Amino acid sequence: MEERDFFDEMSEQKKHTLVCPHCSQPGEYELSWLVRRKKQQLPRGADERDKARFQKAQSYMVRRDDLVGCKNIRCRKRFDVAGIQSVAYIQETATGPVEDREARIRAAFGRRSQG
Ligand SMILES: [Zn+2]
Q1: Cα gap 89→92, rounded to integer Å
Q2: Separation between Cα atoms, residue 93 and residue 99, nearest integer Å
Q3: 42 partner at 20 to 30 Å CA-CA among 7, 18, 77, 106?
Q4: pLDDT of residue 4
Q5: Strand 87-89 and strand 26-38: pairing?
Q6: pTM metric for this prediction
Q7: CA 59 to centroid of ligand 1, rounded, Å
């Protein structure tokens, strides 16, 4: 199973404030990112090894643009977007209601403490 089988892939535009190194003028630029979101479930046909890899897999995004054109009309030079990381992990929101999680924790640890 390939790594891409674990993710849903899509393109997203994100706004970033960048400062042109040629004229030092800050501006807002839209950069294109390739976003890979981890699938809710392991795809069919996965074996034990795939299962372990899937558990460790994390949603992330990869920057696709390396250069932007300066928005200052008197400059217009292209510059590298080196200040922005090229790969970023996406923070997942916790799944399921809090009560449910607490119940599961109690079920897992509560019994043990009673001996
Ligand atoms: Zn510039």
Answers
A1: 9
A2: 15
A3: 106
A4: 85
A5: unpaired
A6: 0.66
A7: 34
CA of 8 from ligand 1 middle (Å) equals 36
Backbone angles phi, psi at 50, to 5 degrees: -65, -40
Cβ–Cβ < 8 Å for 59, 93? no
Helix, strand, coil shares, percent, the chain, to 5: 25, 35, 40
* Measured distance CA(31)–CA(8) in Å, rounded: 20
The one-letter code for the residue type at 57 is: A
Q: Ligand 1 centroid vs 23 CA: distance in angstroms?
A: 4
